[in-house]
Each structure stands twice: as C-alpha cells, then as structure tokens.
Design brief:
The protein is of the alpha/beta class and 320 residues long. The protein is 39% helix and 14% strand. Strand 2 and strand 3 form a beta hairpin.
Length: 320
C-alpha cells in the first residue's frame, strides 16, 4: 500500500528525512500527535519578542528595556496558546520558564547591536518550485547591508552544535539562501545562526556552488521520499537522537511496529541504549528544539498562503 506524498517540503523537513525516514513518516505523513515541547514553546516566545523588537522599534530605540517590554507582551499573548497550557506548568515552573526566556533575549544583545540592524523582513515566508518539488520556508529575519546585499539571520534557542555538526546545522539555512535566490532573484552574501544560549554566532557565505549543491541535494531527497511513499518503506536510522524520540513505540529499533499494526498511542521516550552510542559533540538542546510554528502574520512571498512548517534515507544517499 502506497502512502500519500507530501505536497511540499520545508528545510526542516528535508533535514528530518535525512535524520530518520521513519520519524519523518510518522510526523509528516501519518501526522501522529507528539507531546508538547517546552523547548519549542520557549522558542516561539523568544522569537516573537525579538521579532517585535526589530520590527516595532526604530534603530536607536532597540534597547534591553524595549526587548523586555516585548517579551512581556509576547508572554501575555502566549497564555492563550494551547501548547503552553498542555505543558501543565505550575506557578513556580511558569516563572522559571519565563525567566529563562528573558535570559535568552538578554543574551541576544551580546551577539549583535540591534540598532545597527536594517531588516527588510521578519518571519518571511518564501516558496518556490524546484522541478516537481514545492519548497517553502520561513526566514526569521532578512537584513539589508549598507551595500545593498542580503543577509539571512536565524535565531536558535538551543545550544550551539559541536564543531563536527556545524555544517549540518547550516544546511537548512543554505536552503533559505536558495529560496532567496529563486524568489527574490538575489543570493544572500551571508547566512547567520545566532545561538542565544551560549551565546555564539555561526556564519557562512553562500556561493553559486553551494546553491547548486543544495538544489541537487533537495531534489534528490524529494525523489527518495517519493520512492519511500510508493513502497511504503520508511526505515529507521538509529542515532543519538533516538533517546529523545517520542515515536519509539512504532520503531523496530525499540521492538515497536508501524502505526497501522497497533493503536495510535504515544509514550515518552525511553532512556534505553540505542544502536549508535551517544556522541559527546551532540548538543541535545540544539536537536530537540523544532522550528517555531508559523506565526499568523507570516508574510507570504512568491505566492501561496502561509502553512505550518514542520521538521530522514541516510545523508550518504544524496549528493553532498
């Protein structure tokens, strides 16, 4: 029995498929529910505060006090979010949650001077066709330099990855560079990850070569997904990420079976050994935090309406 092919992919979903095809299927095709993630909700809160700081305040007025005010407003708005309610935070936990978010917002100021930021878009939705694939993604912030060049900025609320994983973390941002080139007709001169918890900034300069490679790799991933859907064959790829996965009930690595073989119930991840020993360079917070859900005010560019962004064959099966 074949499975329905997704109608589009985001950079996060491309990475998810190369990380573990089975988890990609359960999340993206079967749409199995997952427990609410404190890291994801906190990421949404911090992203909203920083987005409002840049977009609502003119250069010269983007102070720490202004950021704190925007965080207060974002926290108030978050009270109506069912994802926050599902976390079941008591008063003390909610206060610790908010204080940690305030720490992340404050550390942003150690990475750059917001008064020097010239943003032309925040939460910017871009989408383009790459042959048979519809690629779509949301850019946290798109800046314009004094020379008229574009810079992509992506906020991260988890820890920065170890040196061995920097390239992998930049892959998704390079896909945003590809989207910029296809939709806006201009390749960014820089893609920058701002890891707020450390805090540290990781940057890379896209080139025609990296853009072509990302194009080829993404189309190859799409064809791999099509084949997997046609054969209903999404295999697990054991890795250190398994210890954080909520789909262990359905994973053969943990003695589970696909969802069609049993009721759709999820248990929390089991802290049991996996096939691949945990690597000390893996930054758990960096891999546990999914991209925040698309904000309702996300700006569509290149046609189409906003849609949620979710976050795979082994990476060796696609061009590097």
């Amino acid at each position: 029995m074949s499975l329905a092919v997704p109608r589009s992919l985001s950079p996060t979903r491309v990475t998810a498929f190369t990380d573990c095809p089975l988890a990609f299927r359960l999340r993206t095709i079967d749409h199995l529910p997952e427990p609410p993630s404190p890291q994801a909700v906190k990421g949404t809160l911090v992203h909203t505060a920083l987005e409002r700081l840049i977009w609502r305040h003119e250069p010269g007025s983007r102070s720490r006090a202004a950021a704190a005010t925007e965080l207060d407003g974002a926290w108030e708005d978050l009270q109506a979010d069912p994802e926050l309610e599902k976390l079941g935070l008591d008063d003390d936990s909610a206060e610790a949650f908010r204080v940690d978010a305030a720490t992340l917002v404050d550390r942003y100021f150690e990475l750059e001077d917001p008064d020097r930021v010239r943003a032309v878009g925040v939460e910017l939705l871009l989408e383009a066709d790459l042959g048979p694939l519809r690629l779509r993604g949301i850019i946290d912030r798109l800046d314009l330099t004094d020379d008229g060049e574009l810079v992509i900025v992506d906020y991260k609320t988890g820890r920065a990855p170890g040196a061995r994983f920097e390239h992998a973390k930049l892959t998704g941002v390079h896909l945003y560079a590809l989207l910029c080139q296809r939709v806006l007709g201009k390749m960014p001169v820089e893609v920058r990850l701002l890891h707020l918890r450390d805090p540290v900034s990781i940057s890379a300069a896209p080139s025609d070569q990296t853009i072509r490679a990302q194009h080829q790799r993404t189309v190859a991933v799409w064809h791999a997904i099509e084949r997997a859907c046609e054969r209903a064959d999404f295999r697990p790829r054991p890795s250190p990420l398994c210890q954080y996965c909520h789909f262990q009930t359905f994973c053969p690595t943990f003695g589970g079976a696909p969802p069609e073989a049993q009721p759709l119930t999820l248990a929390g991840p089991r802290r049991v050994p996996v096939v691949v020993a945990p690597d000390p360079d893996v930054a758990p917070d960096a891999v546990l935090v999914p991209e925040p859900a698309v904000a309702p005010e996300a700006t569509p560019v290149g046609g189409g309406a906003p849609a949620p962004v979710a976050p795979a064959v082994p990476s060796s099966a696609v061009p590097s």
